[in-house]
Amino acid sequence: MNARTATAAVYRGAGPDVEITEITVAAPRRGEVLVEIRASGVCGSDRHVIDGEWHVPSPTVMGHEGAGIIVELGADVTGLAVGDHVSLVWNQACQRCVNCQSGKPWACTDLVSNDCVMPDGTTRLARGEEAVYPYLAVGSMSEYAVVPASAAIRMPSELPFEIAALISCSIHTGLGAVQNNARVSAGESSVVVGCGGVGLSIVMGLRLAGAHPIIAVDRNPEKLALALEAGATHALLADEHTAAQIQELTAGGADVAFEAIGNPRTIQQLPGHVRLGGRAVLVGMPPEDAPIPLDVLDLCYRGITVIASNYGGGVPARDFPRYAALYLDGRLPLDALVSHRISIHDVNEAFRVMRSGADARSVIVF
Ligand code: APR
Ligand code: ZN
């Protein structure tokens, strides 16, 4: 097929706004699929880029938390068909390196999707003569995207696209951190600092795991209300008393604590919330070039395990359908994560809402 025209949200260097403009999307090449995007979540990682905290090539189509329908297959694609509903993977593991082969695609040694290019180092996107890059090799804030077939995970057709989109990033990141990284067991005491899309997904994962108590912390009371709906047993408004309140509620520190903001200060404070021998799980990603000092002697004395989580330490092809099934069975209240369904033309307003800390997640629907 010929190239298609798509309306997309394009980043052109740090600044508060992305540009909504038309791009062209070339046909999928060998091993790739063309997806008509139906939903794309507005995620904290997109904001990190737009606010200049992380660096990517420019111009770039933003969005990496996407879902849609396959409309065209490149050569040699097997196991997928036109019409399949898919969630897209932003950590596009090579499937061949030693880590991929041992079930750790998040630690792929050959990853190029972070460079915002296809596995062959090129892009299918352009604006006139100018090359345009797909953020994390997805670029889902666009009516069409091309991804490697292995980055399109088939989902049940009865799953709403908004939910399929969220499963591909915040839910996989949050539930995965609980299940794969921290391996939380029933009855463990837990703390979640930051209750955006990722933190709320962690709360839901903790409830599924049977953790108790589940203490949610956020600076925004609206987020705390959502956390209680998602399964938190306690909600603390972040202030100078938070650390002492956690100590009191957990009799000296939680078994496991998660940071889901990416704020250097709350990351640094996290090990202080866990008891001797506990786990501090780092899920939020801080700005680039901002090393965070940790009191290593204290960590050693107290035998704290610090776990750095990347994309939930999971396996998308295994986990995405599992999360879809839990949602469809009514065991994961993921609808609570979608606070606004917006048009792509309103994405800059969605970033403003995100910066203010209000609401759960805006999802662009096409
Ligand atoms: N103390 C407490 N809560 C805070 C603070 C703070 N200092 N700063 C921000 N928050 C809260 C906000 O109110 C919001 O509820 O943290 C939450 C962050 O949520 P989002 O901005 O929606 O971000 P999200 O998409 O959940 O991603 C969080 O995880 O994967 C990473 O890159 C992602 O670093 C980002 C993090
Ligand atoms: Zn994301």
Description:
- This protein has helices spanning 44-50, 98-101, 161-181, 197-209, 221-230, 242-249, 264-269, 296-302, 316-328, 347-356, and strands at 4-11, 19-25, 32-41, 60-61, 66-73, 85-88, 125-127, 130-134, 144-148, 152-154, 190-193, 214-218, 234-237, 254-259, 274-282, 305-308, 338-342, 361-365.
- The chain has ten helices and 18 strands.
- The longest helix has 21 residues, at 161-181.
- The protein has 366 residues and is of the alpha/beta class.
- Helix 3 (161-181) crosses helix 4 (197-209) and helix 3 crosses helix 9 (316-328).
- The strands form three sheets. Strands 3, 5, 6, 9, 10, 17 and 18 form a seven-stranded mixed beta sheet that branches. Strands 13-12-11-14-15-16 form a six-stranded parallel beta sheet, sandwiched between helices. Strands 1-2-7-8-4 form a five-stranded mixed beta barrel.
- It is 27% helix and 27% strand.
- The chain folds into two domains: 4-168 and 339-365, Medium-chain alcohol dehydrogenases, catalytic domain (Quinone Oxidoreductase, Chain A, domain 1, Alpha-Beta Complex); 178-310, NAD(P)-binding Rossmann-like Domain (Rossmann fold), CATH 3.40.50.
- The site of zinc ion has 5 residues, from loops.
- Residues 13-366 form the Enoyl reductase (ER) domain.
- Belongs to the zinc-containing alcohol dehydrogenase family.
- Keywords: Metal-binding, NAD, Oxidoreductase, Zinc.
